[in-house]
Amino acid sequence: MYYLTLATLLLIYATLALSLNLITGLAGQVTLGHAAFFGIGAYVLAFLLAHGVNFWIALPSAGLAAGITGLALGAVSLRLREDFLAIATIGINFVVVALFLYLPFFGGAFGMSGIAGPFRESGTLLTAAALFGLVVWLHEAVRASDLGLALIALRESEEAAEALGVNVKRFKVTVFSLGTAVAGLAGGLYAAYVGVIHPHDFGFPLSVTLLAMVAIGGMGTLWGPILGAIVLGGFAQAFAFIHNYELVLFGLLLALVMRYRPQGLLGRRL
After folding, report:
1. Cα 115 from chain centroid?
2. What pLDDT is stored for residue 199 in this prediction?
3. Extents of the domains making up the chain
4. Rounded to an integer, what is the distance from CA 132 to the centroid of its chain?
């Protein structure tokens, strides 16, 4: 049972890490608020299930809600770059958590409980594996497409990409909406699996952890974020007894990787 739970959570986190890799790894848009979209997906699914909506309608709706929010963020962030974009996304994360915390129909500080998915634990594992496989395919399809080439050009230099005729604004908005929609799907599945969610589950520390997963594994690669999710996700489970010091240990691990292998464990040498 423990290993089934661990495998399911690692698949969800690997899916979430790939969704961030689309934005940060491929397009070079550093975001420190990705957990907010994970939370939007979780809360939307929980809210819809509580009102009798079928799970297979609620789950895509969770992804759609997160994607629309990401679309809005992408539109707002068109003039923001690098540090300014990162700071803006931190603010988004805090705003979303505050809304979950203070709006009564989201359960406030008590969160939402009794979230019942339509299947047993093994069924959730299979669903998480199916979603993960779909996102792997999507990630590689994007990377091999004209969209992927445009995103990589955007990552290397926005000015050069624009000079070559790349519609920077359109591609920024596209990648934000795509990555956040995938995060919303992962959040919906997470809520259905754990059954109980709280606002602080989706706070800034999780956003930092997700960015660490991508950076440690190797930004812009397929297997790097997956490895990062396995390493940090497994690390969190193995050292759950020192949960209060988790971010300290993650920070130390990230510092070591950045010092001795700045391209990430599976990234190409810089």
Report:
1. 21
2. 93
3. 2-203
4. 12
